[in-house]
Amino acid sequence: MPARSPRKEIPQYGLEASRQLHRLPGDTSAFGYNNLPAAARIKGFELYSSEGVRAQMGPLKSDYYRISISVRGVTEIQLGLEDFTHGTGTVSFTFPGQIFSKRGLSDDAFGYYLLFEPAFLEDILAPDRIPEEFPFFAYAGVPFMQLSPAELAATVDFAERMNAELRRHQPGHDKAMRMYVYLMLLELKRSYLRQGFHLVEKEDKAAYLVPRYKKLVSEHFLTRRKVADYAAMLGVTPNHLNRAIRAHTGHTASEAIADMLVREAKAALRYTDTTIAAISDQLHFSDPAGFNRFFKEKTGITPLAFRKNAVSG
Question: What CATH number matches the domain at 204-312, 1.10.10.60, 3.20.20.70, 2.40.50.140, 1.10.3720.10?
Answer without folding.
Answer: 1.10.10.60
